[in-house]
């Protein structure tokens, strides 16, 4: 499983490739495009950019969705970050920049709309 298709279903990060459409018929589904309206998105984007965590873009949408759902504003141990990333296949960065960005994202505070 590569994690590239990760979306939010009722606020929880899930792999859309593993879901039947009928199972989420009444759910709120948010894709990476929908997250651009999230109040913390500019800070998340900045963290990924500053740490060079963006390269080919294959893994980026899924990792950003997971970061907003599971890391944003929540201090994480290194093992927890590794566990989160175990469900995402990055073909370029070796995860070092991504891990650094996730550590920064964990420190972001924001006001929910």
Query: Number of helical segments?
Result: 5
Secondary-structure element series: EEEHHHHH
Shape: globular
Low-confidence stretches: none
Question: Based on helices, strands and strand pairing, what is the structural class?
Answer: mainly alpha
Cross-sheet strand order for the largest sheet: 2-1-3
- Main beta-sheet annotation: 3 strands, antiparallel
How much helix is in the residues?
A: 25-40%
How many DSSP E strands? 3
In angstroms, what separates the terminal alpha carbons? 33 Å
Mean pLDDT score: 92
Layout of secondary structure:
Blueprint: E1 6-9, E2 12-15, E3 29-30, H1 32-35, H2 41-50, H3 60-70, H4 78-85, H5 96-106
Helix pairs in contact: 2-5
List descriptors:
globular; mainly alpha; 5 helices; single chain
Provide a descriptive summary of the structure in words.
The protein is mostly helical and 113 residues long. The protein is 39% helix and 9% strand. The chain has helices at residues 32-35, 41-50, 60-70, 78-85, 96-106, and strands at residues 6-9, 12-15, 29-30. A three-stranded antiparallel beta sheet has the order 2-1-3. Helix 2 packs antiparallel against helix 5. It starts with 5 loop residues before the first strand and ends in a 7-residue tail after the last helix.
Summarize the structure.
The chain has 113 residues and is mostly helical.
């Amino acid at each position: 499983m590569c994690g590239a298709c990760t979306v939010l279903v009722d606020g929880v990060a899930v792999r859309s490739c593993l879901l039947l459409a009928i199972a989420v018929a009444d759910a709120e589904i948010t894709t990476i495009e929908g997250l651009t309206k999230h109040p913390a998105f500019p800070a998340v984007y900045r963290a990924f950019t500053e740490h060079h965590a963006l390269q080919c873009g294959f893994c980026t949408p899924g990792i950003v969705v997971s970061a907003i759902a599971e890391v944003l504003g929540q201090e994480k141990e290194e093992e927890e970050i590794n566990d989160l990333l175990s469900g995402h296949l990055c073909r370029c960065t070796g995860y070092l920049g991504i891990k650094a960005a996730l550590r920064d994202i964990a420190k972001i505070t924001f006001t929910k709309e």
